[in-house]
From TrEMBL:
PANTHER family: PROTEIN SIEVE ELEMENT OCCLUSION B-LIKE. The lineage of its organism: Eukaryota, Viridiplantae, Streptophyta, Embryophyta, Tracheophyta. Pfam families: SEO_C, SEO_N. This is Protein SIEVE ELEMENT OCCLUSION B. Residues 93-239 form the Sieve element occlusion N-terminal domain. It comes from Cannabis sativa (Hemp). GO terms for biological process: phloem development. Residues 382-595 form the Sieve element occlusion C-terminal domain. InterPro entries: SEO_C (IPR027944), SEO_N (IPR027942), SEOA (IPR039299).
């Protein structure tokens, strides 16, 4: 029977239909695994025994299995009733694809690791119970969906309508029945494990084949849990949103052959985008010409097309060397793009795999900060580059060539700005005096400074540099994970973003690495009191000395921290800890209007 399960799982894992479902692509990362289905039992034994610590004899898996069995049997009875009378009329059956066999294998090992203290039978029962909890809940709600108001509301959250509508069941009937059958088979196999456990109380010599069966039990449990993982994935895909398919239909207008088997950067925007919005993508386009598995498509989002808008479209299209969607009408999947991907009018660049999995909901954040260094801007690239501590240089290098030189030469640089002109003037005078201090000169400490909001010649910036600087900080903010314990770099970025609307703020960097940042008044106090702590430099150096003194100052001067997170820029964190005291921050809702078109921006002088 287990061999039958193994063959069915192989089919479930290998089936695919990318035009109908959004599926996931996971790269094979283990050299040890060529195919789960060709691995020897000995190899599987070696892998899974490493997860097994000992068996908890007090766990009552028999009672749990009775409950799980009842849940799953009832669920399958509901499935039979719901799909009864639904027949396929010249519509291709949906075949579903689990992420892939290596992922299924790794998921199974992860489950076995979690259950390392349980007996082999208990491991299988607990895995089945976890699946039954979700599977049974879904089908109970499906049964009550049309007759109970609460079930109807819960059903929307569980995506029940996406599967039980007649039109969907027509297409997915066979896949649902296959899943139901596989669940039944898996349940019967796990029931056999219980029989093996009971027979193990007898002398193996009295029962032919029992010894072999017990020796093989760990491998059988492995396959049972892998089957459960495959069932869970198949169920998830069956109720998945059809937005991926709607987008596939929209992209038919862009010669679908050129997109087939490609990682696609989908550039969503209106027709009011700037030259900078286009120029920032050109290095990415040049890279896609080298990396043939990537391509870019512009998908203009326009509520109502007019002759004037069509002319703007043609003008923009002529400036874009990549593919453009030519469709003067409603785009399929627009609701999905707005609701699920949170498109709100500003340009966004969604990266999807050949199978339709979203790898980055808005790669523009990474591109604005790191440029082509972060290519291909997928999750793996984002994780790697998020550990980078030399980040300030990437934000300021385009301000002026002299700043890029300072960064390369690893000079100490004060970047500062704010709304209080008097405080900014005072800071400029004090930091100028610090840079020319005889002690600093004698120690060969080279200090430079730049006021963000003014040009390097001291002239007013008129918004170009300032807007791009804070836009870069916001993009950097959204490349970080703020829902976990944050690292020092993320904490520094959170602090910096909180200073955006303050009277003054300042950053001290050494080259491209940030030494410290703070409210303008606290950094200014450290600079003003230099004579009191300068001797520390002889022992610890300027960098460590400045940071230690600033930390002490921040304990005596407290400012409220306020983080304004623009939701249009990307994914806003659910909650935030204060980057200074680490307490949970209060949440407020505010609204802002600058009385201008949000998609209209000033062009940097270098791009005019």
């Amino acid at each position: 029977m287990l061999n039958g399960v193994k063959s069915v799982v192989s089919k479930v894992v290998q089936d695919t239909n990318v035009n109908n479902v959004v599926v996931q692509q996971i790269e094979i990362t283990s050299d040890q695994i060529t195919s789960v289905f060709t691995m020897s039992d000995k190899k599987i034994n070696d892998l899974i025994y490493a997860t097994h610590v000992h068996a908890d004899e007090s766990f009552d898996e028999d009672s749990l299995f009775i409950i799980v069995e009842n849940v799953l049997k009832s669920s399958n009875q509901i499935i039979d009733k719901i799909v009864q009378g639904i027949h396929v009329h010249d519509v291709d059956n949906l075949s579903c694809k689990a992420p892939n066999e290596v992922t299924a294998h790794e998921t199974t090992l992860a489950i076995l690791n979690k259950l390392s203290n349980y007996s082999w039978e208990a491991k299988a029962v607990l895995a089945l119970a976890a699946f039954a909890f979700e599977f049974g809940d879904f089908w109970l709600i499906a049964q009550l969906y049309n007759s109970d108001s609460l079930a109807k509301q819960l059903g929307v959250l569980k995506r029940v309508p996406s599967l039980i509508k007649t039109s969907e069941l027509v297409k997915r009937r066979q896949a649902v029945l296959e899943l139901s059958s596989l669940v039944n088979v898996t349940m019967r196999v796990i029931a056999m494990f219980d029989e093996f456990e009971k027979l193990s109380a007898y002398d193996v010599k009295d029962i032919p084949g029992l010894s072999v069966a017990l020796d093989h039990l760990p491998v059988d449990v492995y396959w049972a849990i892998l089957t459960i993982a495959a069932c869970a994935t198949k169920h998830c895909i069956l109720i998945s949103d059809k937005g991926g398919r709607d987008l596939q239909e929209a992209l038919q207008a862009v010669n679908i052959d050129v997109l087939r088997r490609k990682n696609v950067f989908m550039f969503f925007s209106g027709v009011e985008i700037t030259e900078e919005d286009i120029s920032i993508l050109k290095p990415v386009y040049e890279e896609t010409k080298k990396e043939k598995s990537y391509t870019i498509v512009w998908i203009p989002i326009v509520e109502k097309w007019s002759d004037e808008i069509k002319k703007k479209y043609e003008t923009l299209k002529s400036k874009m060397p990549w593919y453009c969607l030519h469709q003067f009408g409603p785009i399929a999947g627009i609701r999905f793009i707005k609701e699920q991907w949170q498109y709100q009018g500003k340009p966004m660049l969604v990266l999807t795999t050949p199978q339709g999995k979203v790898e980055n909901l808005n790669a523009l954040h990474l591109i604005r900060v790191w440029g082509i260094k972060a290519f291909p801007f997928d999750k793996k690239s984002e994780e790697i580059i998020s550990k980078e501590i030399h980040w300030i240089g990437s934000l300021v290098k385009r301000i002026d060539p002299i700043i890029e030189t300072w960064v390369k030469e690893e000079k100490y640089i004060f970047f500062y700005g704010g709304k209080d002109k008097d405080l900014i003037e005072t800071f400029t005078k004090k930091v100028t005096a610090l840079a020319s201090n005889p002690f600093i000169k004698e120690a060969k400490i080279n200090i430079k400074f730049f006021c963000v909001g003014k040009t390097t010649k001291g002239e007013e910036d008129h918004g170009n540099i300032l807007g791009r600087f804070w836009g870069g900080i916001e993009s950097l903010f959204f490349t970080k994970d703020h829902n976990k314990d944050v690292d020092p770099v993320t904490q520094e970025i959170q602090k910096l973003l909180s200073y955006k609307n303050e009277s003054a703020w300042a950053i001290l960097s050494k080259g491209s690495a940030v030494v410290t940042s703070g409210h303008g008044s606290t950094i200014l106090k450290v600079v003003e009191e230099f004579e009191q702590w300068k001797e520390v430099i002889k022992v610890k150096g300027f960098e460590v000395g400045f940071k230690e003194v600033h930390t002490k100052v921040t304990q005596t001067i407290r400012h409220c921290i306020r983080l304004d997170v623009p939701t249009v820029a990307g994914k806003a964190p659910d909650c935030m800890k204060c980057p200074e005291c680490l307490r949970a921050m209060e949440t407020y809702i505010s609204y802002k209007c600058c009385h201008v078109d949000p998609t209209t921006q000033l062009l940097p002088s270098s791009l005019k």
